[in-house]
Amino acid sequence: MNPSYLSGRSVSTKPGAIQPASRRLEGVFEKAIGEVRKERQALASIVGEANNRRDQWFYLIFIGLMAFLFGVGVAPLLFNHITWKNFDERVASFIVGGQDRWESGAAMMRDARPEQWNSFMWEDRLVQDNMPKIRDCRIAATQVGQPKPCVITIKPDAQ
């Protein structure tokens, strides 16, 4: 009595169905190897995607950190010493949106303190309207060496 697992032959009740067990096992192993290869490729793809995501996060955090450090640490020191043709004022004027630096400054002052800006504009108009009288009075006060009262004209506010 020779068991089939020892003889290397399969036992079957059908005629012609006897084939070596090694061929049957070879087919099963090849199928298993193919499935393992597919799973390995799928796993390699998953690991590759995870590595790519990890690398992307690393670069994103690294670039963000470097930009922050440059903006906070390096740029102020660099631009504080590099004022080539009033670069810092030109950048501020560009950001505010004025036609030039003077207009940008006026816009910022007007928006920051409207009451004080209106007072400043009224005083400027008063001086501009009375410039010849103020100049003559200043010259006379300088010659005398003492304060001198002057008469100026104040125009009504435009409505």
Give a verbal description of the structure.
The protein has 159 residues and is mainly α. The protein has 2 domains: 73 residues, no CATH class; 41 residues, no CATH class. 74% of the residues lie in helices and 0% in strands. The protein contains 6 helices and no strands. α3 crosses α4 and α4 crosses α5. The model has no long low-confidence stretch (mean pLDDT 80).
What order do the helices and strands come in, and which of them pair?
Layout: H1 4-7, H2 21-81, H3 87-96, H4 101-112, H5 114-129, H6 131-144
Helix pairs in contact: 3-4, 4-5
What is the compact description of this entry?
The protein has helices at 4-7, 21-81, 87-96, 101-112, 114-129, 131-144.
Average pLDDT metric: 80
**SSE succession:** HHHHHH
Helix/strand/pairing class, anyone?
mainly alpha
Biggest sheet layout: none
Keywords:
159 residues, mainly alpha, 74% helix, rod-shaped
